[in-house]
Inverse folding.
């Protein structure tokens, strides 16, 4: 087995976990009263690769006990998952769905019974279609709708769950939905991007207040996708800088520092009301960092933000799915967010996607994933050694799953999912991560 990375600089009570999201693994999209989400609608139009949908996904809705057994085998301390808004509130508001609420009761109880701490994310992109029909994130009323949803989750689960995240990667679902996506999801334009940015931030602040009021001892954060946005050529420097501001700072700056970046401010000002920044800037306890590698940007006058994805430098290291990699950028990013925002940092997603296939023996030796994880976890250790207050690492992901526009062709899991049979087959990276956790916690691997 490949060598383990250094972890000596990490704190003794460092948290090791994995992350998943509701739509990507649950399936059961028409069972027990769940309403449709925007991703159900998108998939039904045949717009995902191979015309894949989330209808079954990993069937986690029925197989969660099996998946928790995998987590226990790993020796995890924490599991980050998301709750499906349309499963709790099929119309996004109004009458709750008891069957949906009860599913997460069962899930949370099983997680706790396995000796694992549940980290609950309220929103990982599966907006109820009924709310999207009313304007979704471009409608200011959604902040109140989200607060009501947060209250429902807090009241139901707050006796057992103390770790809450309001949003996962708001920059991704707004930028790709409103300004940098393709076709169907890039339908609304530049003005709606700023509406969505501001309303997501308002929803975050409202949810923080709800969680504080209803969950004694709550530890609350938000999860941000923070990647270096680098110019494809020297002429693209301004475009890359602008993209980086929207991608990385349009949410944590107002949420944590109480102000929008200057480049974003003029765009959101028409939609601001007196007191909005106070409503957004609510005290939180930690910064959730999702990071994979740098992205390269070029100027594009035809694009609504004036920029789009550009070419990587010749010879730049990439993953099998052509994402750039740079462990040093990971170290620097952790140091940057720790310094700029003054909060403890939890790495809430990091991992490598590929086109994994079982070998003739039915095993999967993903040494390239292990090498990626070794280098990136080593870089995290280096950031800790340099003074960053980094307190946890959640690998993306426990399972191969529905990878959004890529469907099921791209695999990030450390457990292979054979979709026709739904068998879970631990990859070599699964055993490697298990050994790392045991070694980091001072336990000799079995």
């Amino acid at each position: 087995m490949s060598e383990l990375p250094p972890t000596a600089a990490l704190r003794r009570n460092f948290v090791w976990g994995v992350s998943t999201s509701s739509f990507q693994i649950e399936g059961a999209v028409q069972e027990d009263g769940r309403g449709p989400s925007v991703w159900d609608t998108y998939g039904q139009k045949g717009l995902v690769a191979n015309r894949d949908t989330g209808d079954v996904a990993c069937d986690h809705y029925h197989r969660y006990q099996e998946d928790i057994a995998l987590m226990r085998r790993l020796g995890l301390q924490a599991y980050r998952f998301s709750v499906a808004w349309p499963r709790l509130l099929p119309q996004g508001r109004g009458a709750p769905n008891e069957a949906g609420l009860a599913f997460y009761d069962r899930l949370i109880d099983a997680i706790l019974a396995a000796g694992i701490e549940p980290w609950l994310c309220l929103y990982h992109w599966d907006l109820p279609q009924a709310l999207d029909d009313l304007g979704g994130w471009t409608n200011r009323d959604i902040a109140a709708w989200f607060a009501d949803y947060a209250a429902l989750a807090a009241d139901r689960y707050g006796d057992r769950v103390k770790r809450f995240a309001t949003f996962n990667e708001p920059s991704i679902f707004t930028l790709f939905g409103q300004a940098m996506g393709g076709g169907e999801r890039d339908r609304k334009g530049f003005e709606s991007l700023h509406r969505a940015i501001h309303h997501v931030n308002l929803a975050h602040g409202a949810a923080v207040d709800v969680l504080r009021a209803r969950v004694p001892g709550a530890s609350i954060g938000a999860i941000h996708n923070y990647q270096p946005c680098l110019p494809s050529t020297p002429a693209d420097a301004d475009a890359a800088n602008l993209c980086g501001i929207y991608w990385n700072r349009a949410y944590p700056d107002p949420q944590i520092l109480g102000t929008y970046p200057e480049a974003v401010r003029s765009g959101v000002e028409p939609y601001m009301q007196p007191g909005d920044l106070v409503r957004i800037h609510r005290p939180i306890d930690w910064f959730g960092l999702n990071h994979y590698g740098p992205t390269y940007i070029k100027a594009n006058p035809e694009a609504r933000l004036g920029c789009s994805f550009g070419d990587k430098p010749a010879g730049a290291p990439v993953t099998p799915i052509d994402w750039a990699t740079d462990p040093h950028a990971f170290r620097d990013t952790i140091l940057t967010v720790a310094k700029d925002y003054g909060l403890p940092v939890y790495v809430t997603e990091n991992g490598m996607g590929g086109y994994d296939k079982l070998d003739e023996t039915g095993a999967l030796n993903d040494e390239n994933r292990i090498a990626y994880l070794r280098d990136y976890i080593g870089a995290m250790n280096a950031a800790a050694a340099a003074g960053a207050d980094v307190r946890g690492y959640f690998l993306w992901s426990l399972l191969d799953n529905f990878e959004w526009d890529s469907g099921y062709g791209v695999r990030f899991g450390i457990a292979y999912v054979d979709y026709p049979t739904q068998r879970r087959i631990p990859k070599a990276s699964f055993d490697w991560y298990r050994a790392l956790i045991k070694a980091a916690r001072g336990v000799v691997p079995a």
